[in-house]
Amino acid sequence: MRRVAVNLLKEGDILANPVKSPSGSILLAKGTRITQNIKNKLPQLGIAFVYIEDSTLPYLSIHEIISEDNLSEAIKTIKKRSLISIIIDGVQRHTRENLDLDRLNSIVNNIIDELMDHKLILSSFAELKLLDNYTYQHSINVCIYSLIIGHSLKFTRTQLFQLGLGALLHDIGKTKIPISIINKPGILSVDEYEKVIAHTILGFELIKKAGKIPLLSAHVALQHHERLMGSGYPRKLKGDAIHPFGYIVGIADMFDALTAEKPYRPRFSIKDTIEILESSGGNLFPQEYIEKFLQTVILYPLGYKVKLNNGEVGVVIGQGKNPLTPIIKVIKGEFYQILDLEEYPQLFIEEVVYE
To answer: Membrane-spanning regions, if any (predicted)?
Structure first.
């Protein structure tokens, strides 16, 4: 496959990956044949590039496909102030705890300064954005959730800096993996799976190569798929051999990945994702880190539109004691009803309504 600017598409080209809207919904399925009508509409939908089938480029990484001009443009889109604002707003929006905003602002500024000061790392982070907006946004989300957990664990300023930077760069090694594998909708072959596993080692080596970035941040890239009982990768570490940062980012990574739509599966509901996380305590992750996540991360932030199991749709207007039972304003024609889901055990949020 190869990445092509929309204006350079030809009739008959075949999409190698789905084309998605900024919210993640699929606009065009993988395998769609390009017509003149589709080519004309893509710019109107805000789509500048797509991936098309090309048998001459079966196993090239994103780094090998992206032109210097495209990479230069991608780097320009990573605005320091904007990225800082997104992360700070995300932490505020998703945490149940009181924050020292000056301290948070200082830590996040230091994280982004470190990113911007290393050309190799910044270029690779920009490549993530070109690879797929999901991977880029996922990295930001994992940073947000990790900082929330770290804050709840009373980490020092230095620890939060190292954790946040490592979380932001945890998937940086994917820029060295063939994009046909990363976005494959079907089951991976043994060889393809081995290549995916390698993104942890490649990310670790890439961050170390940049120099002056804390070694603990590099170890986040290496360890975020390691698991408590030794079932993870790449080194099948167990227990205390895995750094707390590896566990924390692993939990954040799992939550964000499960609640996102993937080429090979639909998104899991937040309720189902939490059940999976709860069952992973003492098996995949230390129980105390799972509990910290559930105690401190707001699962349904204010303003989320949600659908209940009785079919009614409402908006989250407040948080309850249980993260799965927020306070909902249900719209009923010209009227509305306020429901504290804590008081209605027969009701639960079936799904978030993404528009």
So the answer is: none
Residue 343: how many CB atoms within 10 A of its CB? 10
- Using alpha carbons, select from 190, 160, 149 the residue that is nearest to residue 293: 149
State the Rg of the chain over Cα. Answer: 21
Written as six digits, the tokens of 267 are 């998104």
177-207 residue pLDDT tens: 887 788 777 788 999 999 999 999 999 999 9
How far is 53 from 179, CA to CA, in rounded Å? 12
Burial 134-156 (b: 16+ CB within 10 A, else e): bbbbbbebbbbbbbbbbbbbebe
Query: pLDDT of 119-141, one tens digit each?
Result: 778 888 877 776 667 788 899 99
Residue in 322, 146, 183 with CA at minimum distance from that of residue 262: 183
Distance CA 171, CA 260 (A): 16
Planar angle of CA 164, 165, 171, nearest 5 degrees: 105
**Dihedral-angle region of residue 303 (phi above 0 means left; psi in -120 to 50 means alpha; beta otherwise):** left
State pTM to two decimals.
Answer: 0.78
Partners of residue 95 on adjacent β-strands? 297
